[in-house]
Amino acid sequence: MYIIIGIVIVLSVLFFLTFFIVKQKTAAIIERFGKFQYFRNSGIHFKIPVIDKIAGRINLKVQQLDVNVETKTKDNVFVRLKVSVQFRVMTDSVYDAFYKLESPRAQITSYVFDVVRAEVPKMKLDNVFERKNDIANAVKEELNDSMLDYGYDIIKTLVTDIDPDQQVKDSMNRINASEREKTAAEFEAEAERIKIVAKARAEAESKRLQGQGIADQRREIARGLEESVDVLNNVGINSQEASALIVVTQHYDTLQSVGEQNNSNLILLPNSPEAGSDMLNQMITSFRASAQIGEEMKRQNEDQEEAKENKVDKAAKDYRSSNRSQYLGKNKGQQGSAEDSQES
């Protein structure tokens, strides 16, 4: 019984030492007496117990390495960049990837530091944000040239984060806030100006319409007074009496309208019946005085025009007399010359 159990144990040990399993997207490195013999991909495989051993397993999946680099820009701003490198081991270069390079992640990190600290100091901070793809491409080119000999293929490099110093970020935020406040103030000022212009135009249009309405009102009042005077003249009332009647009527109409207001503080002075007559007499006197002044100004203008015409006529007459004298003198000289020539 014990012999059977021992045989089973030995067979089990031999089975586990002879057969081995490799997972998907993984390569197993087999050495014989410390020397590379072969490598095996995914599946179940056979090896010689004790003689062959699995030296290691290497991952064939696409891997990602995040590298944080702190450097200085051209305008002396310290900035931290996070560079993500995606890489994989090429299936036909498993030997190189396992034996030539001890620590591939440390090697990739060193190259990333070198390239980033060579490229970023050539740029200003704003250009670092704008040209982050150029930085990523430079890192990828350098890594491809260096890591290809070690069996590593660089799939993609990404600059996933750009973090300036906190004081710089605060300053940039203040600058952006100031620019936005300035833009907002300009828009608010423009809106206020538009409102003021629109209000001024509306007030001007209101005043124009108000003036037009007052002019139309006075025109209609004058037409109504003219028609009233014509009606009174047709029944034998002369113009002066008609004007007096209209003034008195309007006077009492005004008193009536004032009296209808309960809370009115308006006082019409004078309010006696003779006030209408006095007002009419004053109006007639004013009209006559203005008519006399107008006639006098008209007469003065006519006198000035007449004096001006007389002055022009006199100047023309003097000019004609002067030309005539010159002409007669010239003819007399010519006649004298002719007589002298005949005598000779």
Structure report:
There is one protein chain. The protein is elongated and about 165 Å long. The protein has helices at 2-18, 94-99, 104-119, 125-130, 132-147, 166-234, 239-260, 274-343; strands at 19-22, 26-32, 35-40, 43-46, 52-59, 63-72, 78-89, 152-164. It has 344 residues and is an alpha+beta fold. The longest helix is centred in the last third of the chain and has 70 residues, at 274-343. The strands form 3 sheets. The protein has a 3-stranded antiparallel sheet with strand order 3-2-5. Helices cover 65% and strands 19% of the residues. It is built from 8 helices and 8 strands; from the N terminus they run αβββββββααααβααα. The protein folds into 3 domains: 2-59, no CATH class; 63-164, Tetrahydropterin Synthase, Chain A (2-Layer Sandwich); 238-327. α6 packs across α7 (239-260) and α7 crosses α8 (274-343).
CATH superfamily of the largest domain: Band 7 domain
What would CATH call the architecture of the largest domain?
Answer: 2-Layer Sandwich
Radius of gyration: 60 Å
Low-pLDDT segments, ≥5 res:
none
In one word, what is the shape?
elongated
CATH class of the largest domain: Alpha Beta
Summarize the structure.
The protein is of the alpha+beta class and 344 residues long.
List keywords for this structure.
3 domains, three-stranded antiparallel beta sheet, 344 residues, alpha+beta, Tetrahydropterin Synthase, Chain A
